[in-house]
Amino acid sequence: MEKTRLLGMTPDQLKEIALEAGLPGFTGKQIAQWIYGRRVRTIGEMTNLSKAGRERLSERYEVGVAEPVGKAESSDGTRKYLFPVNGDPGNAVEAVMIPDGDRKTLCVSSQAGCKMGCKFCMTGRQGFHGSLSAADILSQFFGIDEAGELTNSVFMGMGEPLDNWEEVKRVIDVLTAPWGFAWSPKRITLSTIGVLPNLKRFLDESKCHLAVSLHDPFPEERATLMPVEKAYPIRDVISLIRKYDFTGQRRVSFEYTMFAGHNDTPRHADALLRLLQGLECRVNLIRFHRIPDFPYGTSSQAAMEAFRDRLARGGLTATIRASRGEDILAACGLLAGLHNHA
User: Fold this and answer.
1) Is 94 among the catalytic positions?
2) Helix (H) or strand (E) holding 70
3) Domain range for residue 36?
4) Interval 176-230: pLDDT, tens
């Protein structure tokens, strides 16, 4: 019989499971402490539970941490890990650990593949193979070598997080709850192309930072890169965002991958200024990493700097994001769940 995974459950859910197994209700909090506080991998390690209780729990349940099946390390210290989905190593996702001084940020995947079909993204090219459970997403936090040293997380790996909001929300709850990792929401950023119904839920139900994949300010041009523009127009996405407060500690940024001669012109910079006028935000300019069968090339450093400076003159904060892990295909848009790890 396939066992149910406890990873991702709340103390209240664990209390119900404990009661079913004939254990006292307070055992739910103890189990949560073992899983999220002490990071145990097995029920047998929960030594303040009775031996008989542990045996009864183990008949139907397991902690359920999926261990990585591969790892690659970049020359810049970035590490990419390959995780099986629901125990199936043939269906795998990637998580990327990015070191930066005292910070260690985990770029986490929420789906195997992606439905959104962005033309310049390797993940989108591979199609959609299923959404991850909260246990599969949390395994990326538990299974890496740096699990105890992580300071931040970005939901910017494989998949569209807001297309799997229920499970992603469970993970955010674990990360931010006092009984979980007890992280501040400000340590977490969620990146989305702008799935409007669930974007509203994310903004209402969490205090995490938001990053929006924009990539082109002209709707008809954006649609050729990102088919989702037809379903969720970027202007509607920004109209929703304007209803929320980003003048305090919560931040919103816009991701802008630059393609030579296509979206890196003064005309695009000026349109971007008009689109985001008056919104407290920043624009992250991203160097495009060439992929097969895609017509556009990489913008030059000079073009990226000119674009950034034009935005700055218009009052918009823009930065050129440093590329990390490119030599192990861990950079933006290159994650594909391939078994090319050591």
Assistant:
1) yes
2) strand 70-73
3) 4-62
4) 999 999 999 999 999 999 999 999 999 999 999 999 999 999 999 999 999 999 9
